[in-house]
Specification:
This protein is mainly α. The chain has one domain: dinb family like domain (Four Helix Bundle (Hemerythrin (Met), subunit A), Up-down Bundle). The chain has five helices and two strands. The chain has a two-stranded antiparallel ribbon. Helix 1 packs antiparallel against helix 4. The protein is globular, with a radius of gyration of 17 Å. The two termini are 29 Å apart. It holds the Pfam family DinB_2. This is DinB-like domain-containing protein. InterPro entries: DinB-like (IPR024775), DinB/YfiT-like (IPR034660).
């Protein structure tokens, strides 16, 4: 099987400053893994919560939502009412959504995040950024790094959940 190397081994991403290349690589790697491991995932298992674990649907909603939120904070913005509503509804089952629509929304958020990365001024990386209602301190770089790290970690959790759910099926 002819498989590409991991994204970080394919060279620099055009239009993204060298300091932010690892963020872009991590986000693209996550998108590829989500696409690969959700391919042909049974729709009937999307909202299953085996043993109290978060569902595959939750993981996909959360991946999209958290990237949107972290990039808002990195851009110096607080969350909008729509983002707050999305956050409140992430943990609920959404029978109207499909694996395909959830993965497409995640891929669209990855594209938006990469576009934001390309527009990030390297001189702003150490700028103070306030996070959440408590306005906890961070920086642009801290938030972008956390977005990449959180996304990769959560994709790992998604993959474990997918394997677990599929293993329970006859």
């Amino acid at each position: 099987m002819n498989q590409l190397p991991e994204v970080w081994l394919r060279g620099p991403l055009p239009q993204i400053t060298p300091t932010l290349q690892p963020v872009g690589h991590a986000l693209l790697q996550s998108a590829e893994e989500v696409l690969r491991y959700t391919h042909n995932f049974p729709p009937s298992l999307l909202w299953l919560k085996p043993g109290g674990m978060a569902s595959v649907g939750f993981h996909l909603l959360h991946l999209t939502g958290v990237l949107d939120r972290l990039f808002s904070y990195a851009g110096g913005r607080q969350l909008s009412p729509a983002q707050l509503e999305y956050l409140q509804k992430e943990s609920l089952p959404h029978p109207d959504l499909t694996v395909t629509s959830l993965v497409a929304a995640f891929e669209k958020q990855i594209e938006s995040s990469l576009s934001s990365l390309a527009q990030t001024d390297p001189a702003s990386l150490n700028d103070h950024r306030a996070v959440g209602r408590k306005a906890l301190p961070s920086t642009t770089l801290g938030l972008l790094f956390h977005a990449a790290e959180h996304t990769q970690r959560h994709v790992g959790q998604l993959l474990v959940t997918i394997a677990f759910v599929k293993a329970l099926q006859p």
